[in-house]
Design goal:
The chain is elongated and about 215 Å long. The chain is built from 28 helices and 37 strands. Strand 33, helix 24 (about 910-920) and strand 34 form a beta-alpha-beta unit. The strands form eight sheets. Strands 24, 25, 26, 27, 28, 29 and 30 form a seven-stranded mixed β-sheet that branches. A six-stranded antiparallel β-sheet has the order 20-19-16-23-22-21, sandwiched between helices. Strands 2-1-5-4-3 form a five-stranded antiparallel β-sheet, with helices on both faces. It is about 40% helix and about 25% strand. By secondary structure, it is α+β, with helices and mostly antiparallel strands.
């Protein structure tokens, strides 16, 4: 027992010593643990997984900036300092480890220090089971904040580098030694056909879109890796995923490790396809420029700032007349200018604007010849913008300017010929008219001399004439109708009674051959060498160059004579055509004169044989027949002349009108306006002559239409307003309230009288005003008589000359004619029209104080209700001024695009005029040259309207219209509107067109406003 007590005490002592030793070890352990920078912890649970103990080293307080002992061994306090966003994941991992006895678990999470800052920590832990069923979890927690920051910085650096690589336009890639891709930038991945650069890692070139070039690229890579030397800026082809071939500029260098070992290849490339294409385009442009430089007909130059040629093409040598290009390069540019100031002005313009476009300049050739040019140039500048020279082209437009002058002279010549033809319509002797013609040819065409031979039966022949027979009397002609007599001569040889060529038999000399041969005209511009001209020496002595002769023969008749001229200048084709037309006029003048002579002889013979009743009757019938023939010839002549004049006049007025719509400078517009005014005056003269012819033949008939008098007066004012405004005159119109406005009669002829009187008032008034007045003369239930007056403040008319004012071709005196112009037909026509309208005409005037012309006219009253269809509202304003409300005809844009017009016209100029007028109205049109072509066109194309000329070759407009209207016609629309557009304006011409099946009639010259109204009417468009 004693031993037992001893043993127990020994055991207790040993136990006490063991506890003391254990506590010492614990203190030592905790001291060691507290010296470690990481937190050391332990967590114990019993077999039922209930917490039974724990340990957290004091490092936790220091790491979180807490006072010592704040956390102690409490895991709840420790968890309270874990970032709320990371706490759930940490607890889940921690307790899952205890439950499953997981080994070597880690967790990264954030903890919040006492000062509010955040630290990143890494916990490593494990869980073990004890023999008694307890589980002990232990681990460490390290502060990894600096490591996380380093990782973030590294990640940011990688992102920056990746962004830089992806941002640069150069493709970047790198491979390992096995030539497998380790990475690339985004643009390289796109070229390879991948959406992301990561997709390319681990692949080789055989897996790319350029697999056809894979071996080429890998060969370059091997050379770089094996040699350790770079390959820079090499051009290689590449096939894109789309199958296109592009050109790459590639560079490759060895990829080395930090120790300098070659571990792969780093490469870049750029797509230089566009650059190569641009370089090729530059080369092609240079080739084109060189081709232009060599082949251009214009001078192409490069010059220095100081006025020296740097380079010139061969055309420059020809333009300026030098022997060689080197010779021209030695000249100074300023020496080529005809005016040195012009060179300075040109340089000022190009230095200010940097270029000139078609700058006009007068230059001098080597031989001193002056040429007109257009210079297009541009200043050459260096990189700083300083002008270092000039380059451009010089175009010689001398011939073009001469052509323009020639066209202008042609227009003047045409106007003079038209005026000559008008003059020939007036009464007069044949010799006087023929002399007027030869004088005009010398003046208009610049002929050296001009002559007209006419067959004159009854004259004696010259000595030696092949047609003379002495046995029949002294020089009596056996073939009187086969000999020519010189009847008119002008120019250098103005006499007609000389011994040479006074009489020329048919077949003798050039004149006689022209009269007798079927070739009705002859032209040569080489009279000094032409074998058909018999006296070359005479031609040389007189410096003659050209000769033209024209047979005077009516259609189907015998030769009446020859018109011939010699000139010291060549005769152009245009002049030849105009002379040929003039020869037709001469033929008609001779025919008319001879018809008049025959008529006179017949009347004389009828009077002399008056005692013989039967013969008198026969002669009277013959005389009447001849009179009808003469009248028919005169009417035919007038109709032909009207047509021949109106046809070219339509082109003149149309083309000038189109020209005025262009962007002309002031001088050009002035010239064009003068030409336009002159053509309108000529048209007015033609209309006056036609009216006179109708009155003289008693064929002028008045229309009876419903019209509004106020509207007619308003239109008259519109026609007179421009002329009055140009002369600075006041124009006033008054109408008494008692004058009815709605009348029946001929408003066109009423307006014609008012315009005639108003135009004269404007013409003879320099200052003051023109007053047009309408007053009621008398009236009944059916008719009214209205008195119209036109008053001016002009020069007035002497009382001694007032009685002859209304006679044909009469003005106050010759000086008035020269100063104011005119035919003298206007007042005579006005008198006839006034009398046809049941009235009379007169004048009241005092010399120097103005004139008042008056006339009366009888009209019917209208029976139509006010406001009926076709009427427009008219109002009279203060002081008698007339205001009109009207709507101008127009065709909507949508209709214009759909419409298509066919123009049948054989004259090329009038074709262009018609198409241009239609184009300005926004309408499409096609042109055919005769009636047969019009018929064919309407069988294949759905046109909306036809503008049909009446006189055309092969098939005229009348026959073409008739064929189109026939039931068996193959026209797509046999009822298509057909408008006659013709220069035939004589009595009956309109009716002839309507009878042929045409719908309406418009006379040449055609004005745009009249054509627009006509189209709007027949195309059934709302106006």
């Amino acid at each position: 027992m004693g031993n037992d007590i001893i043993d127990r005490k020994q055991a207790e002592e040993a136990l006490r010593e063991a506890k003391l030793a254990a506590e010492d070890r614990k203190v030592s352990y905790e001291q060691v643990v507290s010296m470690i920078s990481d937190i050391v912890w332990r967590y114990d649970v019993n077999a039922k997984r209930k917490h039974v103990g724990s340990y957290i080293s004091p490092v936790a307080d220091r790491m979180l900036g807490l006072p010592d002992g704040t956390i102690g061994d409490s895991f709840e306090k420790y968890f309270s300092y874990v970032h709320p966003d990371d706490l759930p994941a940490l607890k889940g991992t921690f307790f899952e480890m205890i439950r499953t006895l997981g080994k070597d678990k880690t967790a990264e999470y954030r903890m919040q220090k006492a000062d509010g800052t955040t630290r990143w920590v890494l916990s490593k832990f494990s869980a073990y089971s004890q023999p008694d069923g307890r589980v002990t979890a232990f681990g460490t927690t390290s502060d990894i904040t600096e490591r996380k920051r380093a990782e973030e910085a590294l990640r940011a650096s990688h992102l920056i580098i990746e962004g830089i690589i992806n941002a640069i336009p150069v493709r970047v890639f790198w491979k390992d030694r096995d030539l497998v891709y380790l990475g690339c930038n985004a643009i390289f991945a796109h070229d390879a056909g991948y959406a992301d650069s990561k997709d390319i890692v681990g692949k080789d070139d055989y897996q790319m879109g350029w697999r056809d070039q894979a071996e080429l690229y890998r060969g370059d890579d091997r050379q770089v890796i094996e040699s350790g030397r770079s390959k820079l800026l090499i051009e290689e082809p590449q096939t894109t995923p789309e199958g296109n071939t592009i050109v790459l500029l590639t560079s490759k260098i060895p990829l080395r490790s930090s120790e300098g070992e070659i571990i792969g290849v780093l490469g870049t490339y750029m797509d230089i396809t566009e650059r190569k294409r641009a370089e090729e385009e530059v080369r092609e442009a240079e080739k084109r420029y060189q081709a232009f430089f060599r082949t251009s007909r214009d001078c192409v130059f490069i010059s220095s700032v100081d006025g020296r040629w740097i380079d010139l093409n061969d055309a420059a040598v020809q333009i300026f007349g030098y022997e060689s290009r080197e010779d021209l390069l030695k000249t100074k540019i300023k020496d080529l200018y005809a005016n040195s100031d012009e060179r300075a002005r040109h340089l000022q313009v190009i230095n200010e604007k940097g270029y000139t476009r078609e700058y006009p300049a007068t230059l001098r050739k080597k031989d001193g010849t002056i040429i007109d040019t257009l210079i297009t140039s541009v200043a050459r500048k260096d990189s700083t913008g300083r002008i270092i020279g000039y380059q451009g082209t010089i175009r010689d437009i001398t011939e073009r300017k001469q052509a323009d002058l020639s066209r202008a002279r042609s227009l003047v010549r045409l106007e003079q010929l038209n005026l000559l033809q008008q003059t020939l319509l007036s009464p007069g002797k044949l010799e006087q008219k023929l002399k007027k013609i030869t004088d005009s040819v010398v003046d208009i065409f610049g002929a050296d001399f001009c002559r007209i031979w006419v067959t004159c039966p009854g004259d004696l022949c010259d000595v030696g004439c092949i047609h003379a027979a002495v046995t029949a009397g002294p020089h009596v002609c056996l073939y009187k109708d086969r000999c020519l007599r010189l009847l008119a001569s002008s120019g250098r040889y103005a006499h007609t009674d000389g011994e040479v060529h006074r009489r020329v038999p048919f077949g003798c000399y050039k004149i006689g051959r022209i009269a007798s041969e079927q070739q009705h005209r002859f032209l040569t511009n080489d009279v000094q060498g032409d074998p058909f001209i018999h006296n070359h020496e005479w031609a040389k002595e007189n410096d003659l160059v050209s000769f033209a002769g024209y047979q005077l023969r009516p259609p189907g008749g015998d030769s009446l004579g020859v018109l011939a001229l010699f000139s010291k200048q060549p005769i152009t084709g245009e002049e030849d055509a105009q002379l040929n037309i003039l020869s037709n006029t001469v033929t008609q003048v001779i025919q008319t004169a001879r018809a008049d002579e025959e008529l006179l002889e017949t009347l004389t013979e009828a009077t002399r044989l008056n005692k013989y009743l039967n013969e008198q009757t026969a002669k009277a019938n013959e005389m009447a027949d001849l009179a009808r023939k003469a009248s028919a010839a005169k009417s035919e002549f007038l109709a032909n002349m009207s047509h021949e004049i109106r046809t070219p006049l339509n082109g003149v007025i149309g083309m000038i009108g189109l020209l005025l719509d262009m962007n002309l400078n002031a001088e050009q517009r002035e010239y064009a306006q003068i030409a336009h005014t002159s053509s309108e005056i000529l048209l007015s003269l033609i209309n006056d002559i036609l009216d006179f012819s109708k009155i003289e033949a008693h064929k002028l008939e008045l229309e009876t239409l419903d019209f509004d008098l106020r509207s007619t007066l308003d239109n008259t004012m519109d026609l007179l307003a421009i002329g009055a405004h140009e002369r600075g005159l006041e124009l006033v119109c008054t109408m008494e309230p008692s004058v009815p406005s709605r009348l029946r009669g001929d408003p066109g002829r009423l307006r014609q009288i008012l315009v005639n009187l108003g135009s004269n008032a404007v013409k003879f008034t320099d200052k003051g005003k023109i007053v047009i007045a309408a007053s009621l003369e008398c009236e009944d239930e059916q008719k009214v008589t209205i008195r119209f007056s036109v008053s001016d403040t002009g020069i007035g008319i002497p009382a001694s000359r007032q009685d002859i004012l209304f006679s044909l071709f009469t003005q106050v005196d010759g000086s008035t004619t020269r100063k104011y112009g005119g035919t003298g037909l206007g007042l005579a026509i006005s008198r006839q029209l006034a009398e046809l309208m049941g009235g009379m005409i007169g004048v009241q005037s005092e010399e120097g104080k103005g004139s008042t012309f008056w006339f009366t006219a009888v009209f019917e009253r209208q029976s139509a209700r006010p406001g009926s269809a076709g009427e427009r509202p008219i109002e009279i304003g203060g002081e008698g001024a007339i205001d009109r409300i009207e709507t101008k005809p127009d065709i909507s844009q949508s209709f214009k695009r759909k419409m298509r017009i066919l123009v049948a016209e054989d004259n090329p100029v009038n074709q262009k005029v018609a198409q241009a007028l239609l184009r300005k109205m926004g309408l499409q049109s096609d042109v055919v040259a005769n009636g047969q072509e019009a018929v064919n066109a309407l069988q294949t194309t759905p046109y909306d309207l036809v503008l049909m000329d009446c006189q055309m070759p092969e098939m005229d407009g009348y026959e073409a219209t008739s064929k189109i209207r026939q039931q068996e016609s193959k026209a797509l629309n046999p009822c298509i509107p057909i408008i006659a557009m013709t220069a035939l304006v004589m009595q009956g011409d309109r009716e002839k067109c309507i009878q042929a099946g045409m719908n309406d009639f418009i006379a040449k010259p055609v004005l745009q406003r009249d054509l627009a109204k006509m189209l709007a009417r027949w195309l059934a468009i709302t106006i």
